[in-house]
Amino acid sequence: MNRIKRGAGRVGRAAGAAVVAAAGMASRAGAASAQEAPVVGAAEPWQFGQQAAASPVMAQLTDFHTLLLWIIAGITLVVFALLAFVMIRFNARANPTPAKTAHSTVIEVIWTVIPVVILIVIAVPSFKLLYFQDRIEDAEMTIKAIGRQWYWDYEYPDHGLAFSAYMIPDEEIQPGQRRLLETDPAVVLPTETNIRIQVTAGDVLHSWAVPAFGIKMDAVPGRLNETWVRILDPGTYYGQCSELCGLGHAFMPIMIKAVPKDAFAAWVETARDDYGVAGFEPQGRVAAAAAAE
Ligand SMILES: [Cu+2]
């Protein structure tokens, strides 16, 4: 059902993202724009299940979650049925003279082998998924998120940008914005791009988590953790610090605007005025792409 909904929303969402990109260029804050892209990555009241997958990793996580749910439901039903059978068939009234059986090799084998088979069925896709989300071989660009008390610093080492993203406080929140989730500025990322994400912290433990991407990565001072994302659809995606880091833990959200590649390139050009790193020379793949244009 999700898939149908997502498919239908795609055209509208792409149009919305173009508007956001244009609005982002017009206003420095960008976030204050009335024409937001339709939100795709945020928790909803009375939400059941996962947020709609916005990346291949999250799509696989959702499938894995569904598989586990079926396995758990099956185990619960079997155990319930066995208990009911025992209570009805072997209660004192139905079975006044109990058997004296103390051991059964057959039953021992069955209740050892079946759980082992279940664990293998779980372990194989689990490990595959762990390695899939671990890192991307062929990253097209990198961003670095640095957790701080209590905001996130972001660096775009390929594009020479660096900025701090602070939560928009309640006094300044505009209609249509999401309280405790909106940041200024938002992190802008291109869709359909393999993005390496490096996560670390400058003071205490934090965790960079965006549910729609299937990412929850510890931010550890002195350690560089790595993961990746490929954002499938334009939109706005929200996340929060997910490691208790002190007084402002609930007030350092993550806000990502995913826009098509050309809109991202345009954003990089305008963002350079505000967030450009002095003396930056593009290198490697990004420099080659810029030279080819
Ligand atoms: Cu934190």
CATH architecture name of the largest domain:
Sandwich
Helix content: 25-40%
**SSE order, one letter for each helix or strand:** HEHHEEEEEEEEEEEHH
Please summarize the sheet with the most strands.
6 strands, mixed
SS element count, helices: 5
Radius of gyration: 25 Å
pLDDT < 50 stretches: 1-34
> Any idea what the shape is?
elongated
Bound molecules: copper (II) ion
Could you state the CATH homologous superfamily of the largest domain? Cupredoxins -  blue copper proteins
Q: What is the CATH topology of the largest domain? A: Immunoglobulin-like
Q: What's the CATH C level of the largest domain?
A: Mainly Beta
For the record, the count of structural domains works out to 2
Task: Kindly state the number of beta strands.
Answer: 12
Distance between the amino and carboxyl termini: 41 Å
The fraction of residues in strands falls at 15-25%
Mean pLDDT: 86
**What is the structural class?**
alpha+beta
Describe this protein with a few key phrases.
single chain, 293 residues, alpha+beta, Immunoglobulin-like, Helix Hairpins, 2 domains, six-stranded mixed sheet, 39% helix, elongated, disordered N terminus, binds copper (II) ion
Q: Briefly, what is this?
A:
The chain is of the alpha+beta class. The protein is built from five helices and twelve strands.
3D structure, described in words:
With 293 residues, the protein is an alpha+beta fold. It has two domains: 190 residues, Cupredoxins -  blue copper proteins (Immunoglobulin-like), CATH 2.60.40; 79 residues, Helix Hairpins, CATH 1.10.287. 39% of the residues lie in helices and 23% in strands. The chain contains five helices and twelve strands. It is elongated, with a radius of gyration of 25 Å. The N terminus is likely disordered. The structure holds copper (II) ion (CU). The site of copper (II) ion has 6 residues, from loops.
